[in-house]
Amino acid sequence: DTEAIFCALLGFLAERNWRSLAEVDPVELRDWLTRMNDKGELTVVLSDGSDVVVYVDKSSTTGAHVWEVFPPYEQLAFGDVDLAVDFARRGVKARKGVVIASNPLEPMPGSTAAWAKVEPGTLMIVRQGAILTKLAPGVSDRPAGIRKANLRPSKVPAKTLNVRHRTTYKYVTAVERSMHLLRLTPVHDPLQHVLSHRVTLSVDGQMRSYEDVHGNRVRRVLLETPFNELIIEAESTVRLLDTDPLDFRPLRARSTIPLVWMPWHRQILAPFLLPPELPESELQELTEYALSFVERNDSDLLDTLLDLNASIFKEYEYRQGATTLHTTAFQVYTDRHGVCQDFTNLFICLARLLGVPARYVCGYIHTGPKNPNQRQGEASHAWAQVYLPEVGWKGFDPTNGIITQTDHVRVAVGRNYVDATPTSGTIFVGGGTETLTVDVRCEPVEGL
Hints:
This protein is an alpha+beta fold. The protein contains nine helices and 24 strands. Strand 4 and strand 5 form a beta hairpin. The radius of gyration is 26 Å and the shape is elongated.
């Protein structure tokens, strides 16, 4: 019976010219397997080396259980009296995966497992460690797989935000002479209009404004009046017009990875294509990880970036105080936690390893009242922009798993945090122990 069904299945696929499971219509395949299931018990696991298809017997006489594995983990071993599997025996990789078994296998000491029974009559498609499609019995809508519509933002109305950014430095010993760089002026361009802006300092000094190499508005301030406390306050009113950031999509041909750049394009984009200096072994591991997103999304550029953005949001824990400015992208990848700066650095590193230009953005985010992410709205926020061919720079916020629209206020961009940091400086005389507090308020302006 098994051989007859398998041969009939191959004939079914050949009749439709499907050369791989990636080309299969999941609804048609599910319906065909259901008809076979009418003749007797049938639970199927089928793979072509890239995708895995699972169909579970509709009568539940024979079933399947699934375990979605998410790092970090030190051990990943399970089994029963007949079988033992240890995925970490040859070294631990910070990868997610899907384990499928007819019956739940017990985790071995030091491991944990969370098995879930698959609903009878369900068809699942798994690719690169993720459930691409989960089609319940009777459902006739064609699923979009990993390219889910909810990863693409809907059009929203324009919004006006008022931002107040207050930074306070306190010193035990008076600072007698210091130099400060301030990047606090929001970007003014066709998608973001600055209606008003002012910066005030509690200590008088000499100030000069200029535009840096990244196009950021910078103030250089020399303070020669002694102080124990310095308050820097910036107030801005900004009109945000990026209401439909992916509206270019229907007008363009599909872009795929690898991208091909003209030599002069690559020269200009070089600073945004160079990954951070990490050990070669770490970059190789991160490259493999980045390529898993490419393979899962059929090399489509935008779908890969959307998947990467959403995966960091879902699979990495937002944890304040667990990282520092020196935490590397590889450490974030293995530890699976961090803050907005860490997730942005990881996203940028992975994009650059795929040959996609990416840069660091510092600014503000409006999270709304009593939002779970309110803590992000009380300080400056970080996200990434990638350069899409024939489109330009588009914002991806992996901390929140979204494309930037009218809740993000762009202030400064650069290769990394150092190029875009809001305030920095050097103390030449005095100082001592420093206490820094930052308070940001980002609120909508009614009627605008």
